[in-house]
Design goal:
Blueprint: H1 4-31, H2 36-44, H3 63-76, H4 78-98, H5 101-113, E1 118-121, E2 137-141, E3 144-155, E4 162-168, E5 176-182, E6 188-193, E7 204-215, E8 219-220, H6 226-262, E9 264-265, E10 268-269, H7 274-302, H8 308-333, H9 344-353, H10 361-375
Parallel strand pairs: 1-4
Antiparallel strand pairs: 2-3, 3-7, 4-5, 5-8, 6-7, 9-10
Helix pairs in contact: 1-3, 3-4, 3-6, 4-5, 4-6, 6-7, 6-8, 6-9, 7-8, 8-9, 8-10
């Protein structure tokens, strides 16, 4: 059961998605466009600082509420949902949880209002799934650090103005530090824009650091303390990003039901055919199972409990379920599903990224098995 506040947030997100995101969804996919004004409108609705305490200008809601917003956005425009995730969770939530009061006061207002777009920079050309293998180096020089290296596949890279950047500050794999880097910093630049199969309306690029000067005051936490922050953020990221997969699958199911009820072959609606019924029934059943797992994981995080295994399981199952849903929807639509006349081909393209971003399905399986071996099966996430 959702609380009254959670239902209100879901309805607010649903109304906004239908009125503001849906009309532009096909266009931004086709043109790889991005509309900053949408983020300013989200800011006015209180959605950009959804997990941030009210004292810092946020809504003060929980992880489940953020997941509900991801689901509603993903249902109509997964590209916008992904950029929203990078901004509201990977940047804003990260800063709200891990920074000092002075840093919060400096950076959160403009991010929560949508005046500035945020993101997080972790992935590198040689360090994707192996996040501890990153090579971006931060060397201390006086009261500043010089960052050298590059990041890639950074969501909101071309449009972002404030980034949480992870860099190496020692020789050990765990010697990582988190920095706040602004667009105008000396030595910081945006590299090539990356053109993708799906999520085409979520701008992605490389970030280049050439003697990028960052004040020691922009360290998040303390030097060498980046790994715990990273892991805690990843649990929240994997749970909330699973909400996008739920939204994509919901849209695929709705479109499949509508089309199969209207499309006739052999003088009857194709929904009367058993194989069509099987795909729709399986789509619904898997979606409901994924939704239960994702919501239960979000609630566990909201109880301030560790949920690494659960968040990996939720992200794994929801992402693969959404890809199957997109595939089934295309099959139900037949030749029309393979064209851009209908949105189901976009659902499949967008869903596929969910099996890769925030840790591939293979990495999630590795994490799940590691957790089971180290900590045992333990209690069910639903308990």
């Amino acid at each position: 059961m959702l609380t009254e506040e959670q239902r209100l947030i879901r309805e607010t997100a649903r109304k906004f998605a239908q009125q503001e995101l849906l009309p532009k969804a096909a266009e931004i996919d086709e043109t790889e466009g991005f509309y900053p004004e949408q983020f300013k409108k989200m800011g006015r609705l209180g959605l950009l600082g959804i997990t941030v305490p009210e004292k810092w200008g946020g809504t003060g809601a929980d992880v489940l509420s953020a997941t509900l917003v991801m689901e509603e956005f993903g249902r109509v425009c997964a590209s916008t949902a992904l950029s929203y995730l990078a901004h509201s969770i990977l940047c804003v939530h990260n800063l709200a949880v891990n920074t000092s009061d002075e840093q919060r006061a400096k950076y959160l207002p403009a991010l929560i209002s949508g005046e500035k777009i945020g993101g997080m920079a972790m992935t590198e050309p040689g360090a994707g799934s192996d996040s501890l293998g990153m090579r971006l180096k931060a060397e201390k020089k006086g009261d500043s650090y010089l960052l050298n290296g590059e990041k890639t596949f950074i969501t909101n890279g071309p449009v972002g103005e404030t980034f949480v950047v992870y860099a190496r500050t020692g020789s050990q794999r765990t010697n990582l530090t988190s920095f706040i880097v602004e667009k105008g910093f000396e030595g910081f630049s945006v590299g090539k824009k990356i053109h993708k199969l799906g999520m085409r309306g979520s701008p992605t690029s490389e970030l280049i650091f050439k003697d990028c000067k960052v004040s020691a005051q922009n360290i998040v936490g303390k030097e060498g303390g980046g790994v715990p922050m990273m892991m805690n953020t990843l649990d929240v990221e994997r749970t909330t990003i699973a909400g996008i997969s739920l939204g994509i699958a919901q849209a695929a199911l709705e479109q499949s039901l509508k089309y199969s009820s209207e499309r006739k072959q052999f003088e009857e609606p194709i929904i009367e055919f058993q194989m069509i019924q099987k795909m729709i029934a399986d789509m619904h059943t898997e979606l409901e199972a994924a939704r239960a797992l994702v919501y239960a994981t979000a609630r566990k995080l909201d109880r301030k409990e560790r949920a690494t295994r659960e968040s990996s399981a939720a992200k794994l199952y929801a992402s693969e379920m959404a890809t199957r849903a997109g595939n089934w929807a295309i099959q139900i639509f037949g030749g029309y599903g393979y064209t851009r006349e209908f949105p189901v081909e976009r659902y499949w393209r967008d869903a596929k990224l969910m099996e890769i971003g925030a840790g591939t399905s293979e990495v999630q399986r590795k994490i799940i098995v590691r957790e089971l071996r180290e900590k045992g099966i333990g209690a069910s996430v639903a308990e």
